[in-house]
Prior knowledge:
With 325 residues, chain A is α/β, with parallel strands linked by helices. Chain A is 41% helix and 13% strand.
Amino acid sequence: MTTRKGNLMSVRTDIKVLDATIRDGGLCNNFEFSDEFVRELYKTNIKSGVDYMEFGYKASKNLFNPDDFGKWKFCDEEDIRAIVGENVSDMKIAVMADVGRCDFKTDFLPKSESVIDMIRVACYIHQIPSAIEMIEYFHNLGYETTCNIMAISQANSEQIQEALDMLGGSSVDVIYLVDSYGSLYPESAGKLAKVYLNAAEKYGKSIGFHAHNNQNLAFANTIETMSYGVSYLDATASGMGRGAGNCAMELLLGFLKNPKYSLYSLLTFIEKYILPLKADGVVWGFDVQYMLTGQLNRHPREAMAFTSDKRSDYFEFYKELLENE
Amino acid sequence: MTTRKGNLMSVRTDIKVLDATIRDGGLCNNFEFSDEFVRELYKTNIKSGVDYMEFGYKASKNLFNPDDFGKWKFCDEEDIRAIVGENVSDMKIAVMADVGRCDFKTDFLPKSESVIDMIRVACYIHQIPSAIEMIEYFHNLGYETTCNIMAISQANSEQIQEALDMLGGSSVDVIYLVDSYGSLYPESAGKLAKVYLNAAEKYGKSIGFHAHNNQNLAFANTIETMSYGVSYLDATASGMGRGAGNCAMELLLGFLKNPKYSLYSLLTFIEKYILPLKADGVVWGFDVQYMLTGQLNRHPREAMAFTSDKRSDYFEFYKELLENE
């Protein structure tokens, strides 16, 4: 049984913090961030000691019309470079590629020609073979890779073990445990993390965790899985992300003991850029409707519709959810 | 070492849920709830299976002028009876009495003449002898009693052990671990809970937990301490409570597996009574300023002032906090 690594006072030098604000937060505003927002976040992340910044998706322009989305749905090389130049910093650049939603054989440059460092391949557990095909392709182009297995709370133990063994035999660098529905508790997230970490040890991989805040447990689950050895930790500024949002970066930076991490710049960024976003009507964060889908271990789509319809009849909504179980 | 009791799927019949909305939430609105609010909450709690409802403080009218506060600061017997009648229900009635802030020898009836069932004695750890004097007095009047030792994150291990031994020798029924500053993590809250539970086993007491949500960990810490055997769990509707608030009752009721607990009525109460309260400008809940005092293990008073001054300069606030360390 995997025991806790380190303690609440010591530094874990294996930790990597990844800011996913533009990618997961982009799901709240259709990826329509101003260049100023993205540039200031980039500078803030560098000052904060963040290890990776995810800029968005590399989505297929054949499947998604670029006129319908902000540019961070597509993350063209020149758009990233317009923000980061040659990225003369210690922070690495990540993008996400969804299985089945990207043209991975045409839309990615060799790493030597790109400012991108890491490609995160997101998939459901039945798509692992497709994910591995993409991972090997990206690995051969020279990128770091992750596999983010989504909606893991709906998979069974045998599926998870099989997926971990398949990925263990691949070139992937990091395997992510993704609580898409925000339905895990610290106790269950910790147990799952131990399963992932056992595979990681066997195959020489690292494990990451990506939380959702449906039950106000995003931060709790992040530090609980971290305590057992999970080392890649996703967070976003003020928790900005789909529905109930993610683990808040300010909570995570305030918790980590490594002096390379600093909270100061992010506090200014929140005041100058997150508060105006909220004042403009961009909505995310813990609320009763997301709690209910999280408690029921369900996709938050009904809660998102409830939110966009500006409903507050939680009782009726709960009945609707239970009728559709 | 105490191990987890039960698991995420089973029922723990020793659990008692206590609603502290009027008492801790009263700190947000000067205890000025309408009778309708309190009566509907009372009915909601009964329907929800809540075990205890705390109505407020029994504060000294010599120290606090009744004209300056709503009536739930004082919890006169006739005011409680105006809501609950003879309390013909399975739910018990609790009130809080602060050491040094109540006239305990004049303001409490014998239990046989009162609709109150439980008196919760709140104190700081250096006030344990005074708390025990009150506990013995209330016990002799016929009441159930708790001792809620506040700000425990600032006490050291020897103090805590001494306090637990002193209370162990008293007539108190329940000893509460109170994270007044919202600075505990699930890992540290769990460790502290085990210390309390070891004393509880030795002396035949029960242990309770009262959380604050400064780091968005109120619910996480509640279920973590519960998993080791803590059985009295405080929560409030929508987490209403001082500063960052408490563990949200809707999260706790949705988590507990005992079918006696139900979420339905609370969802209606939130829509009909909590949303209007927020719309009227009553403020509580997780926010950056409370996170910062929680991370620094400090009283939230500066964060409360920051909130009431409607400030948002988090960076300056953080500097001020660090300058006053």
